[in-house]
Amino acid sequence: MIDVKNLVKSYNGLTVLNGINEFIEKGEKVVIVGPSGSGKSTFLRCLNLLEKPTDGEIWFEGQQINSKECDINKLRQKMGMVFQHFNLFPHLTVIQNITLAPLKLKLQTKEQAEENAVRLLNIIGLADKANEYPQMLSGGQKQRIAIVRALAMNPDVMLFDEPTSALDPEMVGEVLELMKKLAEDGMTMVVVTHEMGFAREVATRVLFMDEGQIKEQAPPKEFFENPKNPRLKDFLSKVL
Amino acid sequence: MGFYNSSVFCLSFAERFQMTFIEDDRWKQFALGLGNTLLITFFAAILGIIIGVTVAVLKVYCYQSGKLKPVDILLNIYLTVIRGTPTLVQLLIMYFIIMKSLNGTVIAIIAFGINSGAYAAEIVRAGILAVDKGQTEAGRSLGLSAWTTMESIVLPQAIKNILPALGNEFITLLKETSIVGYVAIVDLTMAATRVQTRTYDAMFPLISIAVIYLVLVMGLTALQKKLERRLASSDRR
């Protein structure tokens, strides 16, 4: 589904991603861990071209997304993204946040979009907040609504960029719970996180990134119990 | 000079009011002037907003995408020239050199619109840049185009932040239109001058128009406050 070939990203001579090759299949739940500054977020953001790769190719559903011919707006509709700081639109109500993109892109009528939004809000138990502004919500609620906002576009893959890092500890659970539910429903997911428990429980594959490269990858059981790369061993000894 | 000053000095308020406004229907001069002042301010403000937002959006686009370098250079020249020369000089150049054929009021609207646009552009640009980058990223990641993201996500938030500064700009604009007398338009200030030359009383017409300007500005301020309150509805806690 997503095919990354020799991805390089550098800012003013500083190489952040240094030749990444990765293939993510439909239905996979890939969790990316690693020390800060290792390029995890940059890698994730390259996948939907929020960062422009310096070199290499990224393919999504048979199209090379970092080519001139590619209509990136079209492809992004199929790639939901969830940010560390939620990035809800503060000037819009919860339901307007969710329906904005489907309506602006004329994918649904107002009735359809609102019906769909209410259905999604019911799933996360926040239907009563539909007409509130984001300012009124807790961090956990905001992040769950941000997830639902991305889901409203019916994406084929969901990218999560440290979705729980900005949350109070007591709210991490509710967001992870929703992500687990999403995983169980078969969503393809790429998750950058520091939640090792989530990686262990939900991931089909865990990637360890360091110095702009994927140093090791394995199914979670092997990844956590039998790490081979010395840097990974060191990393795990610090976080576990 | 001393002769007429001392002669009007001993007149009562009512007599001076009578002389300034009622005699020879002089209030009509003021009404005409007020109308022109408002007309020029209103349309110049609209033109200023249109130019300001367009320039700001283009400049931000050039800055963020690194494309359209020549456009960026042209815009910079526009901003530098307009902000670097006196409004009065711009108005005179417009009137005597560029658009001799047009109606004076239209020329004033265009001149003030272009002038105000340059200041508005910088205000709007600052407002756009002050909106968190995550907002743009969230919009784009949903598949919205750069323009749709700007128009439905970034600009509404930017406008809210810059409303006080923008209000200031239009208050300045209103007061600055008092120079249009230089190109033979009867605005509020010109009306006062005209009446003064007939009545030999400078004080009364000038204080009168000062009060009128003050009331207009207070009206604008009230309007601005009202708008700010409405736009702040999403901040209610």
Shape of chain B: elongated
Please, how many domains of chain B? 1
Rg of chain B to the nearest angstrom?
Answer: 22 Å
- The portion of residues assigned to helices of chain B is over 70%
User: CATH H-level name of chain B... which superfamily?
Assistant: MetI-like
H and E string of chain A: EEEHEEHEHHHEHEHEEHH
> Which architecture of chain B per CATH?
Orthogonal Bundle
User: Uncertain runs of chain A with pLDDT below 50, 5 residues or more?
Assistant: none
Amount of beta strand of chain A: 25-35%
Number of helices of chain A: 9
Textual characterization of the structure:
The complex is a heterodimer of chains A (240) and B (237). With 240 residues, chain A is α/β, with parallel strands linked by helices. Helices cover 38% and strands 25% of the residues of chain A. A six-stranded mixed β-sheet of chain A has the order 6-7-8-3-9-10, sandwiched between helices. In chain A, helix 3 (94-104) packs across helix 4 (110-123) and helix 5 (139-151) runs parallel beside helix 6. The two termini of chain A are 32 Å apart. Chain B has ten helices and no strands. The mean pLDDT of chain B is 89. The N and C termini of chain B lie far apart (63 Å). Chain B has one domain (2-236): MetI-like (MetI-like fold, Orthogonal Bundle), CATH 1.10.3720.10. Chain B has 237 residues and is mainly α. In chain B, helix 3 (27-65) packs antiparallel against helix 9 (188-199). Classes of the chains: A alpha/beta (240), B mainly alpha (237). Chain A binds chain B through residues 48, 50, 73-81, 83, 85, 87-93, 100-101, 104-105, 133-136, 146, 149-150, 153, and chain B through 132, 134-135, 137-145, 148, 152-153, 156-157, 160, 233-237.
